[in-house]
Give the backbone structure.
Amino acid sequence: MPKQIARGVTVTTLFVLTVIMVVKLTGVQTSISVAARNNQNSQTTPSQTEKPFDQAQALADLRKAIAGQESKPAGEVFKNIQMLKTMPAGRLLAVMERGFARSLGVTCTHCHVAGAWEKEDKPTKQIAREMWAMVSVINSDQLKNIKNLKGPNSIVNCTTCHRGQTKPALDLPETTSK
Ligand code: HEC
Ligand code: HEC
């Protein structure tokens, strides 16, 4: 009899322990998935529910949208051109891609909210205008007046300073060879 009771107690204890463990594990799992869901929720900003920005696609869409008007002045084709008004519209897109994005090592979204190209959402867009003006002054007023330069047409552009970075370097990287 005592042996049977002991066995009964053991079995019951094991059963209870198992139930506790199952409950705990399910609990843990539920809280993990809740945490995961919360985590997802906290990261779900509008831009992240959309596809990541595809620059090639954006350019293809814009080229399609202005098809037939590539050589018209950008000021007539686009909505908010303040500076590059007389540049052909097709060329403006090339400047955006190679002159601006590539030379700074960024994509269009550094200066634009994708799709809202005419808006002034980001301060970098206005900075780019002022940089363009600075480059014009350097090229037309200053560089031009330096005598004895080798180039017949010495100019600087965005790449001259930026070289694929938003913040131009002030010093060369340390060389490893001494
Ligand atoms: C360094 C900042 C910068 C980057 C990067 C940039 N843009 Fe721009 N974008 C500008 C500025 C500045 C203007 C306005 C030019 C003006 O006022 O003359 C502009 C204007 C435009 C416009 C005209 C919108 C309208 O209707 O007025 C389009 C379209 C455009 N950009 C597309 C692009 C695309 C596509 C890319 C990426 C390949 C890109 N931009 C990258 C600064 C930038
Ligand atoms: C003479 C050198 C020089 C040239 C040429 C130049 N930049 Fe800059 N640019 C700078 C410096 C310096 C800064 C400031 C970097 C900093 O301290 O954050 C800057 C900053 C910027 C920024 C802000 C970057 C950021 O993310 O904060 C943009 C946008 C920019 N330049 C666009 C242009 C464009 C477009 C051109 C060509 C039209 C251009 N720059 C040409 C020197 C130059």
In short: The CA atoms of residues 16 and 178 lie 72 Å apart. Residues 2-36 form one domain.
